[in-house]
Amino acid sequence: QVHVVQSGGGLGQPGGSLRPSCVASGDIFKVNDMSWYRRETGKQRELVATITRSGSTIYEDSVKERFTISRDNAKNTVDLQMMRLKPEDTGVYYCKADVQTGPNHEYEYWGQGTQVTVFT
Fold first, then answer.
1. 9 phi and psi angles, rounded to 5 deg
2. What are the backbone angles phi and psi of residue 89, rounded to the nearest 5°?
């Protein structure tokens, strides 16, 4: 029983900011990579940012220098600080946690998704 719950997101202005967050809880042995994905209407889901347990990060090119992903290993949380928002940032954002429930088992757990809308 692992639960991944998102909060935040919502409506943002061009040039503004939003900060969705995500927490994993339940039968957790260790949380490895944590990531944010988004799906723009009519397009495939894409990776926005990912962060390893040790803090290494990868960003999609269009959000580099604008978004910052961070995590708290003690709380099993991950945040996405979204700055200087653009209309093309609009989409449904999903949190994904790669969770070990034991030493030899890892599974991807997804949050429920949250809408981010940057109005034009």
1. 75, -155
2. -80, -10
5 touches 94 (CB < 8 A): no
pLDDT in tens, 54-92: 999 999 999 999 999 999 999 999 999 999 999 999 999
Which residues, 6 or more positions from 92, have their beta carbon under 8 angstroms from its beta carbon? 38, 39, 113, 114, 115, 116
Question: Which value, to the nearest 10 degrees, does the dihedral of the CA atoms of residues 8, 38, 117, 99 take?
Answer: -10
**CA 105 – CA 93 distance, rounded (Å):** 26
Q: Which residues contact 23 (CB under 8 A, 6 or more apart)?
A: 4, 5, 75, 76, 77
Give the model confidence (pLDDT) of 3-34 as tens digits. 999 999 999 999 999 999 999 999 999 999 99
Cβ neighbours for 64, distance < 8 A, ≥ 6 positions apart: none
CB 48 within 8 A of CB 93: yes
Helix, strand, coil fractions of the chain, as percent rounded to 5? 5, 60, 35
Residue corresponding to tokens 């429930």: 101
